[in-house]
Amino acid sequence: MFWKRFKRDKSALIGLIAASIILFLAIFGPLLAPYNPYEQDLAKRTQLPNKDNLLGRDAYGRDLFSRILYGARTTVMAGFFVIFPAMLIGTALGVFAGYWGGLVDSIIMRSMDFLLAFPYFFLAILIVATLGPNLANAIIAVIITSIPQFARVVKGATLGLIKSQYIEASKAMGSSDIRIIWEHIIPNLIGPIIVLASVGIAHAVLAVAALGFLGMGAQPPTAEWGLMLSEGRAFVYSDPHLTMIPGIFLAFYILSVNLVGDGLRDTLDPRLK
Amino acid sequence: MKEGKRSSSILLYAIKRLLMIIPLLFLITTAVFIILNFAPGDPAVLMLGPEATNEKVEQLRNELGLNNPWHIQYWDFIKNLILNKSLGRSYQNGRPVIHEIAKALPISALLAIVAIIISSVVAIILGVLSAVKQYSFIDSLTKVIVLAGVSMPVFWLGLVLIIIFSVYLGILPSCGWGGGWKYLVLPAITLSTSPLAQICRLTRSSMLEVIRQDYITTCRAKGLPEKLIIFRHALRNTSIPVVTLIGVRLGNIMTGSVLTETIFAIPGLGRLTVTAVYARDYTMIRGSILTIAAIFAIMNLIVDLSYSLMDPRIKY
Q1: Residue B142 Cα, gap to closest chain A Cα (Å)
Q2: What residue of B is the nearest CA neighbor of A259?
Q3: pLDDT over 90 for what percent of chain A?
Q4: Can you give the pLDDT at residue A270?
Q5: Which CATH number fits domain A2-37+52-272: 3.40.720.10, 1.20.1050.90, 1.10.3720.10, 3.40.920.10?
Q6: Per-residue pLDDT tens digits for A136-160
Q7: Which chain A positions have a beta carbon within 8 Å of B207's beta carbon?
């Protein structure tokens, strides 16, 4: 039923295929890579794409195609590493706040408001500044900034659900709170949560890459698309392909994830259209 | 009389909200202070360089008050802020943080305002046109622009524009600031794309909803010209969500400005913060984060207040 409706949306289907290709590269990239992505060959630095090096070589003479494949793993996986914890924590907080209300609700939601009092990227920068600049800390920073979105939406949805008759009936029959939450509330939240997560992944990938670009995420010589873009920056005048190539891959992935996200939203939650 | 009552209630609400910003900023100051206290690295060592002797480092730590327990440092900071209206001196160059922020803020503000004007004007025109002419060429074009806008990383777009307009065409400067409008063009375009896409998408969908309503049919039935219907009757009713989004984006545009200012080497607030983070300049980080949170809070307040101006039904 769901798949039938989803596949009617042509652009979402194209997005799904494109995202799957990048995911495939992320998973099997190291097997497909023709060269070691960290092996330097300064004699061949900044070479343009040719038949030996499909996408050319970077400023240290490293094979760009192999670095893109390894970078796919870092950049694409970062999105999932952010979104799963953010989704779990945000959903738990949102359900608790909505279900119990009162003091629990106040404490949780005021903390979320506090996190939302900064533009999210500055909050991420502040967290990285405290923890130290590396990929893991950049991911932690983006997780923290992504939690409030989930908590807010889930709390709103939970408030709507607890007023429904079947939950009252379940309470009257003496079900425990945990049972009601687990069996009646969570299953009804899955739609909006999936929609939020699919939009959130694009956001998370961009934020982690942006932190990498600023030197606050993945550190050299890691192959990460944001960092690769930043390394190519110094060569914008002489060798623009060093910035163009990682950028095209990053934009292509974000675009495909956005298309899938839009499709999911229209399928699962037509009201949000 | 009624009008007077209304405006005084809005004023009361505005004052109440403004007063609420003070405890919020106080809370943020405290949190940022505590968070940065746990940050690794010694600013004194960073300021003096790796060759400094231990005595010198110790002396500087004493001068900066870094050897005091954090609650004393915090108390000194608050005292200084309230009594001297000072955010302290930068660890990097010894200049007052407030002066540095006062220099950077107008630059970021100008960039943000120009970017938001570009994005709002283009987005509203495209959004209205694509809704009025649904499924036409312009509608498809708008869809492509929106998709590209939300998907293109700001930091990549900036570099692509530099490659096209500075490297190949050579008509616009690739970086820098202060040499006139030419220096503003590429950064403003870069910064405007993401809000443009979002505002455009929302204008289109709200417009589509409004033009199907009965009162628009009534307008048509009584023979009003189409332009008047669209711009006076329909557009006005889509303005609430759109203006909200523009306001929210103006607050959030500072996020994009960190990246844009870094790419184009613009000495704004975003770049100031990033450089402060690299140098572990805690006083500067504290000052700029506080400024950013204050602007963000005030922007949100302005958005909330503007509702009642657009829709007289909303009361406070």
Answers
A1: 15
A2: B147
A3: 58
A4: 56
A5: 1.10.3720.10
A6: 999 999 999 999 999 999 999 999 8
A7: none
pTM, full prediction: 0.89
Question: Which chain A residues are within 8 Å of B161, Cβ to Cβ?
Answer: none
Delimit the domains of chain A by residue range: 2-37+52-272
pLDDT of residue B315: 63
Residue A92, min C-alpha distance to chain B (Å):
24
Query: How many domains does chain B divide into?
Result: 2
Q: Do A119 and B174 touch (CB under 8 A)?
A: no
Alpha carbon of B99 to those of B113, B267, B271, B276, B294: distances in Å? 22, 13, 15, 15, 17
Say yes or no: B146 and B219 in one domain.
Answer: yes
Contacts of B162 in chain A (CB under 8 A): 236
State pLDDT tens for residues A211-256. 999 999 999 999 999 999 999 998 988 899 999 999 999 999 999 9
- Residue B50: per-residue pLDDT: 79
pLDDT above 50 (res B1): no
Q: Which amino acid is at A153?
A: V
State whether residue B36 sits within 8 Å of chain A by CB: yes
Q: State the best of A125, A137, A228 to mutate against chain B, taking most chain B CBs within 10 Å.
A: A125
| pLDDT of residue A40 exceeding 80 | yes
Burial of A75 (0-12, 13-18, 19+ CB in 10 A): buried
| Domain containing residue B58 | 2-84
* Residue A117 contacts B where some CB pair is shorter than 8 Å: yes
pLDDT of residue B68: 85
